[in-house]
Amino acid sequence: xxxxxxxxxxxxxxxxxxxxxxxxxxxxxxxxxxxxxxxxxxxxxxxxxxxxxxxxxxxxxxxxxxxxxxxxxxxxxxxxxxxxxxxxxxxxxxxxxxxxxxxxxxxxxxxxxxxxxxxxxxxxxxxxxxxxxxxxxxxxxxxxxxxxxxxxxxxxx
Amino acid sequence: xxxxxxxxxxxxxxxxxxxxxxxxxxxxxxxxxxxxxxxxxxxxxxxxxxxxxxxxxxxxxxxxxxxxxxxxxxxxxxxxxxxxxxxxxxxxxxxxxxxxxxxxxxxxxxxxxxxxxxxxxxxxxxxxxxxxxxxxxxxxxxxxxxxxxxxxxxxxxxxxxxxxxxxxxxxxxxxxxxxxxxxxxxxxxxxxxxxxxxxxxxxxxxxxxxxxxxxxxxxxxxxxxxxxxxxxxxxxxxxxxxxxxxxxxxxxxxxxxxxxxxxxxxxxxxxxxxxxxxxxxxxxxxxxxxxxxxxxxxxxxxxxxxxxxxxxxxxxxxxxxxxxxxxxxxxxxxxxxxxxxxxxxxxxxxxxxxxxxxxxxxxxxxxxxxxxxxxxxxxxxxxxxxxxxxxxxxxxxxxxxxxxxxxxxxxxxxxxxxxxxxxxxxxxxxxxxxxxxxxxxxxxxxxxxxxxxxxxxxxxxxxxxxxxxxxxxxxxxxxxxxxxxxxxxxxxxxxxxxxxxxxxxxxxxxxxxxxxxxxxxxxxxxxxxxxxxxxxxxxxxxxxxxxxxxxxxxxxxxxxxxxxxxxxxxxxxxxxxxxxxxxxxxxxxxxxxxxxxxxxxxxxxxxxxxxxxx
Lengths: 157, 614
Ligand SMILES: [Zn+2]
Ligand SMILES: [Zn+2]
Ligand SMILES: [Zn+2]
Ligand SMILES: [Zn+2]
Ligand SMILES: [Zn+2]
Ligand SMILES: [Zn+2]
Ligand SMILES: [Zn+2]
What we know:
heterodimer; A: alpha+beta; B: two-stranded antiparallel ribbon; disordered N terminus; binds zinc ion; zinc-finger (chain B); transferase (chain B); ubiquitin protein ligase activity (chain B); zinc ion binding (chain B)
């Protein structure tokens, strides 16, 4: 690792997690640390099949704060996405990123949970009020918009 | 809980109370006289039933009723009781509660602590829930019945699932669920929780799929001294902050808490630090005025809206720079403050240069008059006028409220100075044992209390609707009588006392002074008791007096509209007066002590000083 000198105090756990993410990536997910900062990851998640995000490639950023793993990683969508639990800044409403965080969870589990959230939007615990309302009043139309956005913003990386 | 709720709930039938299961609900209801007693009995019966369910091995529980009695209201009297608790008392209470639960449920003290914290320190709630469905409680709270047996014990080294490092088994630890992580990681986990706040008191296992409770023993066994202190602090605070029957004293820096026991009576109490406050709203004591009125009044006092009203009533924006300009002289020619210095007419807001002969002279503005006739200015003027009136009304009550508050503070300071110093001096000068001078401090205590009551009656008066004429009249009469009595007492305690302090020799008239001051104290107390009762009944007695009040001509005769809240000008400033007439039908005033006796109770002898009616 070329940037190891700039990240001398990287805990062993982060090194191990990184190695495993690179050597055994989860299906549909890729995460690679940035050259300059090994706590910052470029993440890509493929839209799950049979979801309105199918066929899309979604970029995210993930950052491990100083307190990690006692504190949760910070994750955000960079690709625009039409989803009731993700707001226009790409912030994600997911319990394990907040009060349900446990130090026994990992980057991998977090990303898998986000992937699952794409398959199962939850308009009852919304972050984006308007999208959630849309979802609840006319799900078919909302799903169509989500497909449209996937085509517009998440196709061809 | 608001007062209306209390009132309506208080009226609830005892059938309803019978159905109440927890003491918390009981609190909501503020059970009245017989209900309070009833609840206690029921609780005991319940516990009795619980104990006898396990009659076979009941002795194992060794349940001690006297123990519960320490924690439950011990008094059978249906009175509102407040207990001031120090930190030590709270820790003692916690230890007692834990001992009770430990005993009763046959569980460890650590588990008892977990249960009590989960159920907000309510012993009866822990009992109820546990015996209703122990399994469910265990699952919710995170108490495993049997420790998970760990096969890993044979392993020499284990990999920690948090730091991913290998550790010898001795360095690994786990709650009863058997989720082993290294000690360093557990410490970090608990440290993070403690620094996140009081949630650390109900901490669960670090494994995300597990809800096992992490008890006090494990927490305190792992963390630093500093974290231990924080944790025990939260533990102490939880007894007060989670418990609906206990609240902290609101005085800054005061470390006492106050426990409330349902009964009848007011919410007012005195903390050991000396603060007199309302248990319900934690504002300073405000009997006989209810919490809602007090909170409205306090909000009003700091509301910006009053400022806005003031500005609206007294100022207009400068037509050039738009800053509000206050008109402070009679002249309509206004010059805006520097740097603007724009000169304009207050009435029409036109430039002053346009004024003069053409507008009807410098002191009149016919532009305004004309515009007013055309109705252009009416709305703005009307609003300004209204704001001014409501402001004047508010100012009237506020001034009296505030003056009585400063009078009270002054009297309190006087009393504090009085107690050691002046009393001894008086004892010296008048050759009286200190024990014989209690009537002086009694008088001052009465003054302080009366000033407090009087102060709050002005907040009450402000919210008493103007159109409730009879009630207002009765209110102002009672307030006026009480206030006049208080002024006499305050005067006597202040001025008369001074002469005995200054005189060189014992005076024979000192005994007269004693009789007078003690009499005034007692009379004033009676007046205020009546006033307090009247306001607490929301002036409902007024209906009984309506007949007698018919002849009264003016409602402005007494009370708030003319009295000062400060010091009286003379002795009995309120003899006679037009509102006297209705009172004469039912009352007579004692010549000796001025007490207004009711003809119904005694028509010949004063019930206060026993002097015959002249
Ligand atoms: Zn566990
Ligand atoms: Zn570890
Ligand atoms: Zn206090
Ligand atoms: Zn109150
Ligand atoms: Zn100006
Ligand atoms: Zn003018
Ligand atoms: Zn008398």
